[in-house]
Amino acid sequence: MKRSTNFMLLTLYLISLFSGITSYCYDHATGEMYTTPIMTIYSALVGIGLMAYVTFFYRIDYNTTSLPLQINYVLFAIRILSLVFTIGYNWCQREEFVCNLNDLQRTHNNFFSRWPMSEKLQQKFEKTLRLKLHMGYVILVGTLLTSYESVKYHFKIDGVLLVIPGMVMCYAINIVMMNYYICIASMNVMLLAINEEMEKILKVCSSLKPWQHSQQIGPGALITQCCKLSDDVDDLAMSQHQVYLLGNRINRMFDIQTACVMLMVYLTNVAAFYMSIPTAQKNQLIIAHYSGWIMTIAPIFMAIYYVDLAIFMRGMFAFRDLCHQAGEMLRESAAYWPAMDIRLEES
After folding, report:
1. Does residue 258 contact residue 176 with C-beta atoms inside 8 Å?
2. Among 39, 65, 154, 343, whose Cα sits 20 to 30 Å from the Cα of 6?
3. From CA 187, how far away is CA 207, in angstroms rounded?
4. Can you tell me where the transmembrane regions are (predicted)?
5. CA–CA separation, 212 vs 225, rounded Å?
6. What secondary structure does DSSP assign to 142-180, as a single string?
7. Residue 279, SS3?
8. Distance between CA 78 and CA 306 in Å, rounded?
């Protein structure tokens, strides 16, 4: 990967550590996740501090009749719930979390040591990863800029040191989903590589029968080739099954956060649609609660947010599609496979 890509990944890792979102460390030499007492204590202190910040929700004026403000309060609450769940999961299921990530890293390394990634696939993987990281960091900056004013107003606090934890609570869900997408991208690139190899095998299989009829390949060489292809198919099928099971385990780790993001998107759409119909009352509300620079940058960040969401959803849906693609290729191409070796047919 390019240095800039590695730098962005390292930055995401450090932000996750600083925010207390992750309570484990990453060994760049071995690629293994591990826990340390210092990181455990730090993560616990950050978690306690953020949980204590929940008490500021009593300062919110819940009697407002403004729909956008009510939705904004709900969005704050959803972010808090997702953060509370993340912190709780990090502690209650930390061993499972670390085990799943280590299994993903191990599976990734073992697979590509056996089936080297093509240059085209590597470029596609890095391009997708860089695009998501760029979008994610822009959204992160936008969340920090817009949340500063919102936290001060809704929680009725002025001190910068008190505002910063509120800003951390606002962007925490974005960091979690960026980490989630990296896991998705790592699994998708393995599935893409599996499907690429399956296509190569199918092309070879479709050529074996014509070669046999034209006597371009002898019986011994044919059997040897069929045995090799059979071993390759078995190996790829096993790898695909491992990635599929691993993907289900990782998806379960982020189920709640994903549901929170979907709910936040829905509520944001409702608020945006409501505010898109201008009235004198809404204009006064905007002037009273939002500064001019917030109203200037908010639409820009909103557009980028939807692009980022589209990239994330495409990655999620691609996982299921890629898992079934190899099976579909085998079923559709079964009629063209030469019935020359029982091992190849069984594979």
Report:
1. no
2. 39
3. 31
4. 6-26, 38-58, 70-92, 160-182, 256-275, 287-307
5. 12
6. HHHHHHHHHHHHHHT---HHHHHHHHHHHHHHHHHHHHH
7. coil
8. 18
At 276, list the tokens.
């898109």
With contact defined as beta carbons under 8 Å apart, do 217 and 225 qualify? yes
Residue 181 confidence class, pLDDT cut points 50, 70, 90 = very high
Structure-token pair, residue 75: 């969005």
Give the three-class secondary structure for 336: helix
How many residues are present in the chain? 347
pLDDT digits (tens, 9 = 90+) for 207-247: 766 665 555 565 566 667 777 777 788 888 888 889 999 99
Q: What is the pLDDT of residue 182?
A: 92
Mean pLDDT of the chain: 78
CA atoms of 131 and 319, how far apart (whole Å) = 18
What does pTM read for this prediction? Answer: 0.84
Q: What is residue 25's three-state secondary structure?
A: strand
Q: What is the model's pLDDT at position 340?
A: 44
Separation of first and last alpha carbons in the chain: 35
Which residues, including other chains, have CB under 8 Å from residue 205's CB and lie 6 or more apart? 229, 333, 336, 337, 338, 344
Torsions phi, psi for 29 (to 5 deg): -75, -45
Q: For the segment 13-53, what is each residue's pLDDT rounded down to a tens digit?
A: 888 888 877 878 888 777 788 888 888 788 878 777 777 76
Q: What is the pLDDT of residues 103-140, one digit of tens each?
A: 999 999 999 999 998 889 999 999 999 999 999 898 88
Scan for tokens 């990782």, then name that residue.
250
Is residue 332 within 8 A of residue 202, CB to CB? The reply is: no
Report which of 66, 25, 40 is spatially closest to residue 286, judged by C-alpha positions. Answer: 66
Instruction: Give the whole-angstrom CA distance, residue 311 versus residue 331.
Output: 30
Cβ-defined contacts of 115-123 (< 8 Å, 24+): 115/193, 115/194, 115/197, 115/236, 115/239, 117/189, 117/193, 118/193, 118/196, 121/189, 121/192, 121/193, 121/196
Q: Which helix (H) or strand (E) holds 13?
A: helix 3-19
